Amino acid sequence: MQTDFTPAQLADPNMAASEAVIRKCVHCGFCTATCPTYTLLGNELDSPRGRIYLIKDMLENERTPSEEVVKHIDRCLSCLSCMTTCPSGVNYMHLVDHARAYIETRYRRPWPERVLRATVAAILPKPERFRAALKVARLAQPVAPLLQGVKPLRAAAAMLKLAPATLPPKAAVTTANASGERGRVVLMQGCAEPVLRPEIRAATVRLLERCGYQVSFAAGEECCGALTHHMGKEKAALQSVRRNVEAWTREIEKGLEAIVITASGCGTTVKDYGYMLRDDPTYADKAAKVSALAKDISEVLEAAGLPERAGHKTLTVAYHPPCSIQHGQKLTTGPQNLLRAAGFNVRLPMDAHLCCGSAGTYNIFQPEIATQLGTRKAETLANLSPDVIATGNIGCAVQISQHTGVPVVHIVELLDWATGGPAPAALESQPG
Fold first, then answer.
1. What's the pLDDT tens digit per position in 283-322?
2. What class of enzyme is it (predicted)?
3. What share of the chain is helix, strand, coil (3-state, %, to 5)?
4. 407 with 424: CB under 8 angstroms?
5. From start to end of 20-152, where are the E strands?
6. Which end of the chain has fewer beta carbons closer than 10 Å to its terminal beta carbon, N or C?
7. Looking at residue 131, what DSSP letter applies?
8. What is the CATH superfamily name and number for domain 7-106?
9. CA 390 remoteness from chain centre
10. Which pLDDT value is given to residue 431?
């Protein structure tokens, strides 16, 4: 795609990076066939190609973002399916993230949106705040239908709806394998996952130790920054990134095999730290080392090999590959191969490449579209007649659970069970 940025504009590293991305686009339209919002809405401006045109015009002419442009950029899930499809190697992820940061600083949203977005950015990345907010949300759920009827408050209603009926108690995870014949790993603690599903972390620790790893946690670690980064709040995102780089660098200096991540949405962002801090002379090298050591839990388990199977009930598992796994990290076969190696009958839905509608905070800010995508995904998974649905991302698990009665678990819960751990909490009523 031809561009006309000025030399002064290209002196900005972010603008130069976006210009290089735009120039790679050849208008072929392959991306439209796999874009969830385009296939759902049929609007060219809700496709990656259409959004690239909007972003090019906005950045090149340094326009104040219009309400129409913001609407279409906001509707993007950042599922990155377009990057898997694109034959030209267009890095749409970096482009849309830059566009969102540009919009955040130059567009004044209506006050209900500003309040809600500021609230989400202040609460969700902080586990203690998130836990307290969920307790309040459960009490406020009866008013959700009233909020649903007021358009500016629909996102608030969606946020209340996502609050679980019961909140699991805090769970302290202890590590036991001090020897770690395979070496030491740091397990990323996360923000939403330990609040909503603490059993995932517990299963991961047991499984990693069974594989021969010494498991540690990094002091000073916080949210990976993905949530605020994808909202365009770049200052807050990079603050979290730098703090994590510092925390993990201290662990790297002690000797470290990997930074293990169980929430694939976080993993995609951490693996991009090197890019995000590429122009920071203090952090660039350290961030690149962190990104190189960041591994999804499935990568670590696949490399180590699963421990001996301990016997369990043979189940049919519908595997939902998170977009951040298959499109963001390009891990397409490892998780399902691990489930098969553990003795499960694994099936994939026909629309495995399409997003479930979670997409970080998308199901809060775009509840109507997210509901349609979630309903469609739940239906295709149910068509597989599974005993359980497995995924590798907490956001996907919560989203799909909203639309199905089939138990939804993280893959590590099944792998832990298959190699000697307890049955997943969602399956405790079934004999194992």
1. 999 999 999 999 999 999 999 999 888 877 789 999 999 9
2. oxidoreductase
3. 55, 5, 40
4. yes
5. none
6. C
7. H
8. Alpha-helical ferredoxin (1.10.1060.10)
9. 15
10. 44
Beta bridge partners of 318: 347, 389
DSSP 8-class letter at 346: E
> Distance (Å, rounded) from C-alpha 248 to C-alpha 259?
8
Helix/strand/coil (H/E/C) assignment for every residue in the chain: CCCCCCHHHHCCHHHHHHHHHHHHCCCCCHHHHHCHHHHHHCCHHHCHHHHHHHHHHHHHCCCCCCHHHHHHHHCCCCCCHHHHHCCCCCCHHHHHHHHHHHHHHHCCCCHHHHHHHHHHHHHCCCHHHHHHHHHHHHHHHHHHHHHHCCHHHHHHHHHHHHCCCCCCCCCCCCCCCCCCCCCEEEECCCCCHHHHCHHHHHHHHHHHHHCCCEEECCCCCCCCCHHHHHCCCHHHHHHHHHHHHHHHHHHHCCCCCEEEECCHHHHHHHCCHHHHCCCCCCCHHHHHHHHHHEEEHHHHHHHHCCCCCCCCCCCEEEECCCHHHHHHCCCCCHHHHHHHHCCCEEECCCCCCCCCCCCCCHHHHCHHHHHHHHHHHHHHHHCCCCCEEEECCHHHHHHHHCCCCCCEEEHHHHHHHHCCCCCCHHHCCCCC
In 10 A of CB 30, how many CB atoms?
15
Residue intervals in the chain for CATH 3.40.50.1860: 308-427
Residues of the chain under the 70 pLDDT cut: 139-174, 177-178, 429-432
Q: What would the two tokens of residue 116 be? A: 């809600």
275: amino acid identity, one letter: Y
Q: How far is CA 127 from CA 192, 326, 332, 432, in A?
A: 6, 27, 30, 32
One-letter-per-residue 3-state SS of 280-326:
CCCCHHHHHHHHHHEEEHHHHHHHHCCCCCCCCCCCEEEECCCHHHH
Burial zone of 338 (CB within 10 Å; 0-12 exposed, 13-18 middle, 19+ buried): buried
CATH 1.10.1060.10 residue spans of the chain: 7-106
Q: Retrieve residue 63's tokens.
A: 């326009």
The DSSP letter of residue 328 is: I
